[in-house]
Amino acid sequence: MSDVKLNFNFTRSLDFLLHQCRGKKLSQRYDDQSIECLDWLELSLDPAPEMVVLGFNENYVPGKATNNMFIDAELADRLGMYGDKQRLARDSYILQSLAVVRKNAGGHLHLICGRTQNDGSPLLPSRLLFLCGDEDAYANAAEFSAEPVPPVAVSESPANERVLPRSKDNGVPQRVSVTSINNYLKSPYSFYLSNHLKLSSVVVNCDELNPMVYGNFTHSILQNFGNSDVRNSTNAADIADYLTTESRRLFDLSFSSPSAVIRAQAELLNNRFVSFATKQAARAADGWQIISSERNIPSGCKLFDSTFDISGIIDRIDRRDNEICLIDYKTPNSNTRYTQKSLFKNDLFTDLQLPLYFFLSDYLEDLKPHKVSLAYSLLTADSNDSGFVDLKFDEKHKQIAETQCREVFRNIEAQNWF
Known about the structure:
Elements: H1 10-21, E1 50-53, H2 73-78, H3 84-104, E2 108-111, H4 134-145, E3 175-177, H5 178-186, H6 188-195, H7 211-226, H8 236-254, H9 260-285, E4 289-296, E5 309-311, E6 313-320, E7 323-330, H10 340-343, E8 344-345, E9 348-349, H11 353-360, E10 371-378, E11 387-391, H12 395-413
Parallel strand pairs: 1-2, 3-5, 7-10
Antiparallel strand pairs: 4-6, 6-7, 8-9, 10-11
Helix pairs in contact: 5-6, 7-8, 8-9
């Protein structure tokens, strides 16, 4: 045995170790000073007397209904497959067990239901809160609908204050994109992370297209459509044929070995294109003509005395007689986020992207003689929600948008990130 030599070098040894460790999970070291965060299905195993459940909203608990293109809900139920009924029963049991364990331990179970998402669209409380007697159901509904409780003031000097990462470069940015300005409106700190620290998300799971890749892929197809010979066709079949053909062409160029999930996403996107084609043909028949696709804002543009330049790309520009419409493509699951009520809430815009393009359109000489309007083109999962949605933007809305933009610009220049 002493004469046997193993043909192992450092590289092969490391490969062997990595292969053995692949798929293994390491538990984080327990810290009794920290607050443990668990997933919903793990909570029933936790005996802690005090428990706070966040995000106790419909479509989260129980989860959103899942649709199978080959097996409908009735057939799945007859086959004994796990479905929405079983998920509802499971989550109802978990909720009851959590309440009983807290009660027996002399503790408390707190259920936190959000009222709106970050973009302002409404959220509903979980239906599990109403699977009880009428009196309790009315009480839960009243509590959810009550006026928000003012936040409790915290100590200005917490014992274990976390220091947020800060950049050594404290200079005001030379150029900011429209998308970044809109992101600042939603989260100044996210703006700081992406624009000053240059941080970005890392794609871990490549088995499916994340929203950004999905959106960029869709925009590439629509950009080519906006420059094609059929862009102003009134024939929905011709538009759909171009979009689906172009989608498959770009798909083959972009993905060499796509997973089954990615291929399914591409085919479902084609279904959105078919729905879009009908609405686009109707718009063309109404006299609207596509005159520009992916129009760049000229360099050196400033707004409202900003110290930085503002860059951007308008997805699409339509013209009808003396009217111009600036259009932004969106690929949401539904049109909920793009109603006037969601986009303009409490006399403020929740999204400044189109208003910013409106103000920047003054730099586009060929648009100056025309009346400019704004619209979203929605390619939604539900064909009934797809189509073009006009954004109301009269003199009152222009003044409000300008005031919001000026405030955001001042905050960016003052580096108010936190």
